């Protein structure tokens, strides 16, 4: 699922419909894309508040999303299994997904 956000260098200022069209035409995406949201700050939506705080032991930890394309792997029962930062590559992410599907 994709939740566009304009909180990172204002890279997604377009309306939802234009973002959908751009991603479909340029990247051939077929996964669900939702309305633009905020993932940090006082207006963070509840889903991202949950995702960011899942599995965090240190109450002082910085849980903010620091750049676009942070990903979360969530089990079918809603448990957050992994958080992948923007720079993590497929060779790190793919084995985690395969394990979660077993």
Characterization of the model:
The structure is a single chain. With 102 residues, this protein is an alpha+beta fold. The chain has 3 helices and 2 strands, in the order ααββα. The chain has a domain at 38-101: Glutaredoxin. The chain has a two-stranded antiparallel sheet. It has helices spanning 16-27, 46-53, 90-101; strands at 71-74, 80-84.
Q: Quick recap of the structure?
A:
With 102 residues, the protein is α+β, with helices and mostly antiparallel strands. 31% of the residues lie in helices and 9% in strands.
Mean pLDDT: 95
CATH architectural category of the domain at 38-101: 3-Layer(aba) Sandwich
How many E-type strands?
Answer: 2
Helical proportion, percent range:
25-40%
| Structural category | alpha+beta
Which CATH C-level class of the domain at 38-101 is it? Alpha Beta
Provide a count of the helices: 3
Strand order of the largest sheet: 1-2
Radius of gyration: 14 Å
| Largest sheet: number of strands, sense, barrel closure | 2 strands, antiparallel
Strand content: 5-15%
Shape: globular
Q: What series of H and E elements makes up the topology?
A: HHEEH
